[in-house]
Every structure is written in structure tokens, then in C-alpha cells.
Design brief:
- This protein is about 20% helix and about 25% strand.
- The chain is α+β, with helices and mostly antiparallel strands and about 130 residues long.
- Strand 3 and strand 4 form a beta hairpin.
- The termini are far apart.
Length: about 130
């Protein structure tokens, strides 16, 4: 076995099909490969379609931006990744609710806790 050649495994790209409303991270391929800044964006999937020449499935997105949303058409799914809700909500899900110092919690966790307490007569939610 010592003289066996090492097998190189090709990279496996995800074969994800995105649905209308999914939030994704996507890259402007030309800006990325030219080394230009501002090549990665957050977008919301609006529709999918198949290019009649290449038969490749492409997506139209709305780029979500603090300066206003912008339509982006024909985005290649090889340069898109789903933004899972579990990652976005991780700080709330793992907030140290037993801490007396709210400074130990992230702002999102504090906001959720304040909203919950205001709606439910200042009672903490039951632990399951």
C-alpha cells in the first residue's frame, strides 16, 4: 500500500434547486475573477428558467441592498449558495437566557427577549 498512488477526489458542487423567495448568497463571476471588490451579494430568488441555447438552469434574483434592491437576471446556480435560516437565527437560538448580564447576549437575542416579554406579561418562555 505504501507505493499506491494517491487518488485525487474532484470537488463536488452542490446540486441545489432554489425556490421563489429563497435567500441566497451569490457572486458576480466577472468581478470575482478580475479581483474586483464588491463581487458577493445577498439576493432573493424570483424565478428560474432554462437557457434555450445552453439548456442550463438559471435564476433571476432581486439583489437585496441597503441602497435599494436591484434586479439581477441569468444568475448561474454554480455561484449561488442558500442562506439557511438556522444560521441567521443561531444567535437567538443559543442566547444565554440565564445570564443576568444582557451584554453577554447579542442584540438580536436581546430584541427577541424584549419583544417576547412585552407580549407575554414578563414571563420567560417555558423550557422544553
Amino acid at each position: 500500500m505504501a507505493n499506491q498512488p494517491h487518488m485525487i477526489q474532484p470537488a463536488v458542487r452542490p446540486q441545489t434547486r432554489y425556490r421563489k423567495g429563497d435567500l441566497v448568497l451569490f457572486r458576480d463571476v466577472e468581478r470575482l475573477w478580475l479581483g474586483l471588490p464588491g463581487h458577493t451579494f445577498i439576493g432573493r430568488v424570483e424565478r428560474s428558467w432554462t437557457n434555450i441555447h445552453s439548456q442550463k438552469l438559471l435564476y433571476d434574483l432581486t439583489e437585496l441592498n441597503v441602497n435599494g434592491n436591484r434586479a439581477r437576471a441569468g444568475i448561474d446556480p454554480d455561484y449561488m449558495r442558500l442562506l439557511p435560516s438556522a444560521d441567521a437565527m443561531h444567535d437567538i437560538d443559543t442566547a444565554p437566557l440565564s445570564e443576568t448580564d444582557t451584554g453577554a447576549m447579542t442584540p438580536a437575542a436581546v430584541a427577541w427577549l424584549r419583544q417576547h416579554l412585552a407580549q407575554h406579561n414578563s414571563a420567560l418562555p417555558e423550557r422544553y
